[in-house]
Amino acid sequence: MGDFMGGGGSGGYVVSRERGNSRGDVVIDDTVGIEMKRHFSNDQKKKLRGQLEDYADNYPYVIALACGIDDMDGWRELENKFSNRGGMGMGMDQTEFTFIIKDRDNFGDPHDFGGGGGLGDLLGF
Q1: pLDDT for position 70
Q2: Half-sphere exposure of residue 60, counting CA atoms within 13 Å on the CB side?
Q3: According to the lineage, what is the superkingdom (predicted)?
Q4: Higher pLDDT, 35 or 6
Q5: How confident is the prediction for the chain on average, in pLDDT?
Q6: Residue 62 has pLDDT above 90, yes or no
Q7: Residue 116 falls within a domain, yes or no?
Q8: For residue 15, how far is the Cα from the chain centroid?
Q9: 92 in a domain, yes or no?
Q10: b/e 49-86 (16+ beta carbons within 10 angstroms → b)
């Protein structure tokens, strides 16, 4: 995924919100599905698992982004389940998953994810 996301500042990517068959929070070129969770908790674990499985059927790259985590054990469980796949086969087995955690002190206002630099600030690159 580094090659896809690290394409420099040339632009050319179509970034949309709540789009596609899976309704990803953010979708890049119908190739990267991003699901964002705020204050990830045990109550959200089952829903996030289902969303990631659904995204795997629609995007070759999937990012789960948590802004603050109340249930680190549940987050790590999902990270281990989805990140330890071989990258071969169909559906989840061919999808590359990335899990990102942003600290609570980097939240910003509810409608202001990142530091004004767009998606790159939010994802940490």
Answers
A1: 93
A2: 10
A3: Archaea
A4: 35
A5: 76
A6: yes
A7: no
A8: 13
A9: yes
A10: bebbbbbbebbbbbbbbbbbbebeebbeebbeebeebe
CA 75 to chain centre: 13
Contact partners, residue 68, CB within 8 Å, separation at least 6: 38, 39, 40, 102, 103, 104, 107
Provide the token pair at 121: 């600030």
Q: Categorize the per-residue pLDDT at 111 as very low, low, confident or very high, splitting at 50, 70 and 90.
A: very low
Burial class (CB in 10 A: 0-12, 13-18, 19+), 97: buried
For residues 63 and 69, what is the distance between their CA atoms, to the nearest angstrom? 16
Asked whether residue 27 is domain-assigned, the answer is yes
CATH number, domain of 58, equals 3.40.50
